């Protein structure tokens, strides 16, 4: 039996899927050529897309990995190139074609546009602000306002020059089969306005998993691209050619992409690459320390300025590059914000005081996790109580020769959104295909280990505190006695906050 026994006619009708019809290519690292058609070029040249050149993909990670200065602009082009490979693989796969029959040209073109524009709502430190303030909209929910042009009325810094069409106007002119509803659905899962049959719904869900799923084009590109720019090998381990050869659909789960058993190692490498990139890059202790510092600096700057409501804040961020935002925060001299940003500018990241992992202290880990991410709790109150307790106990104040300031201890709890769903693995069985449940063993093992060992809660402290501990004890970190005291104090604060119902 062969999987590639047919070709969908849309593969030849949509010019972006037919390399011979492209007007040229855009070169990306390393040796990646993105097919460039005239209508894609017009979208890329739009001021709102060009703005992504000023938004770094990994924010301040360049302080740890100097090469990590690439942008959302480059990543968006990379996702389009990777997504084209996904679609080409599906449209030449016999099993996938059966589930894609109800799909029409507009669905595929909308997905291509979603791939290119999925990060159009990004701005400097977007993920940080989304975690910090519940009322800040998620950047993926801003795709529709960018398309309709409403974004310029909401945020003046995004107002377009006279006679400059909105992105949605370009879509309507150059992509008449596509729809804003479908683009928004493929990016954020928002339901299209019209009711559709279950077969079309399954087909559109399958297409959406190409952009937003366990092994989607977005993840494949950023793992690969971030590895290149950070100078690490992990995201390059994925065997992309073999992966696309194995891409298929499971009969009992037609709403997501699956892989033939010949591509099992590709899925396992994908899971490993993602886990390694989080461990060594995204959640590297220095990267998380700087993130926690910027997080606190933003809170100090925003909460200390009554005139800076959330819309004004976002408007200010949309109109600035990463460096300009850092300069804005740094310009608030004096106080906690100025101190934090001075340490960042001088590359003096906070140091680890405590590290809490789920296997070693599951009760404390779960309490802190709930207090951070469940809306019923106030994590700032927990952190303030912890610092008050430290100053009352004088364990660190006596060593330092003064009281700990509120911004000198930061508790960092990574977001939960990093979890992974499983990927169906299909194997041949005589004259039919069945899902191979044993194919999930390695994937599930890496997924479980990710939560147990990669996702760490860290208590960071100002470098002066760690240096004072080192001078007194000769150790880089607290000894067992001090570590136990700190852990018990933090546990008490977390337990009291977890019991609050206000």
Order of strands, main sheet, comes to 3-4-7-8
Low-confidence stretches: 191-197
Radius of gyration: 25 Å
- Total DSSP helices: 25
Structural class given helices, strands, pairing? alpha+beta
Shape: globular
Strand content: 5-15%
Give the end-to-end Cα distance, rounded to a whole number of Å: 62 Å
Largest sheet: 4 strands, mixed
Q: What level of helicity do the residues show?
A: 40-55%
Keywords:
globular; 3-stranded antiparallel sheet; 502 residues; 25 helices; 9 strands
Q: What this model shows, in words?
A:
The protein is α+β, with helices and mostly antiparallel strands. Helix content is 53%, strand content 9%. It contains 25 helices and 9 strands. The chain has helices at residues 10-13, 38-44, 47-50, 72-90, 94-100, 105-117, 126-132, 143-148, 150-154, 167-174, 180-188, 198-211, 217-230, 240-246, 264-282, 285-303, 310-318, 322-330, 335-345, 362-373, 379-393, 397-400, 441-454, 463-473, 480-499, and strands at residues 24-28, 32-36, 247-250, 253-260, 351-356, 409-412, 425-429, 432-435, 457-461. The strands form 3 sheets. It has a 4-stranded mixed sheet with strand order 3-4-7-8. The protein has a 3-stranded antiparallel sheet with strand order 5-9-6, sandwiched between helices. The protein has a two-stranded antiparallel sheet with strand order 1-2. Strand 1 and strand 2 (32-36) form a beta hairpin. Helix 16 (285-303) runs antiparallel to helix 19. The longest helix has 20 residues, at 480-499. The radius of gyration is 25 Å and the shape is globular. The termini are far apart. Mean pLDDT is 91; it is low at 191-197.
